[in-house]
Amino acid sequence: LFLKLPSDYFKYLSWCDIEEHDVRGNQLHCPRVREGPSKEELFFRGEEHHTFKKRKQVTDTEKWQKKLQENWENCAELNLSFQDLGDLYQVENFKRILRRLIRVEKLWLVDNSLTDLSAIRLPRCRELNVSKNHFTSFKQLPKTPQIQHLSLAENNIMTLSGISDFRHTPLESLILKRNPCEFQEKYRQIVFSSLPNLKMLDGIPKLPEDCSPPDINFFFKMCTIL
């Protein structure tokens, strides 16, 4: 008969639920933060007898201890990519953690099927990678007033509408490869004219032809009154 490995007992536990260790959230760079399935889901899967320990009523003291152990507020660099957020409660837990990242400077959220993080604010984030998600607009991105490097490759951003929201940020590098907006006419000129601090787009430095020329038709519309 097929025998499961001992680690199978831990597969639905987050790192902070495992006893006898003092690891803090700010010591981890690539933690698994999605929660395991609910008790009802385990029952339908026929897996509830494989859980490491029976779920019990969590006290306020235990909740506070878990919050202190997670310690997300002190994270400066964190990779939360490939979390496999298959259920709504997992997404909500994921966003709960993002709201605590008040000091994070570098954050990777690659391939998490994210659609809207507009309610999230990352006040110190300088580098954000949200490639391979399902964003359709710049308005759905988190608030990042200190952003310098932003990667949005392989999303579904249709137009450049909303890109001017980053006009007053120190954004220097932007990656929009494999988004529909990449095929918009005068794509590079529009992006650079909207973002005066931008130095590099899609890995290519700003070129002379990326600067929008003056509107020639404007001079023909002028008239001189003698």
Features:
Leucine-rich repeat, LRR (right-handed beta-alpha superhelix); 5 helices; alpha/beta
Could you explain how this protein is built, in words?
The chain contains 5 helices and 7 strands; from the N terminus they run ααβαββββαββα. By secondary structure, the chain is α/β, with parallel strands linked by helices. It has a single domain, classed as Alpha-Beta Horseshoe (Leucine-rich repeat, LRR (right-handed beta-alpha superhelix)). The chain has a 7-stranded mixed sheet with strand order 1-2-3-4-5-6-7, with helices on one face. A hairpin with a 2-residue loop joins strand 6 (about 200) and strand 7. It starts with about 40 loop residues before the first helix and ends in a 6-residue tail after the last helix.
Radius of gyration: 23 Å
In total, the number of domains comes to 1
Would you list the SSEs in sequence order as H and E?
HHEHEEEEHEEH
Mean of the pLDDT scores? Answer: 83
The CATH superfamily label reads Ribonuclease Inhibitor
Strand order of the largest sheet: 1-2-3-4-5-6-7
Q: Which CATH-level-2 architecture?
A: Alpha-Beta Horseshoe
How many β strands by DSSP? 7
